[in-house]
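Q: I'm writing up a methods section and want to include an example of the input and output format. Could you take the sequence below and give the corresponding predicted structure tokens, formatted cleanly so I can copy it straight into the document?
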Amino acid sequence: VQLQASGGGLVQAGGSLRLSCAASGRTFSIYAMAWFRQAPGKEREFVSGITWSGEYTYFADSVKGRFSISRDNAKNTVYLQMNSLKPEDTAVYYCATQPRINANFDSWGQGTLVTVSS
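A: Here is the clean output for your methods example:
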């Protein structure tokens, strides 16, 4: 599976961005896709995930109520809508896929930088 992440940029606090992650290749092998982020000097953390069927979604506590996740079946693309952005959301955001439940995320996109100014 190949992943192409896009949509990052510079936004003021309180603003919004939508990240996209387009999957190609063996998309039939995807169980779930998730977004992770890594801020400077910090470890990578889980942000949000969605099963490939779209049935289940997951969010880190830090983004609940502000971020939403969705997928477009026809485009094999997952979107992360980020609203009410805060400076602490500044990070490189990565999308990744999981081949089956409880498995490691084994395909990763290249990352897209989100910078939130105060």
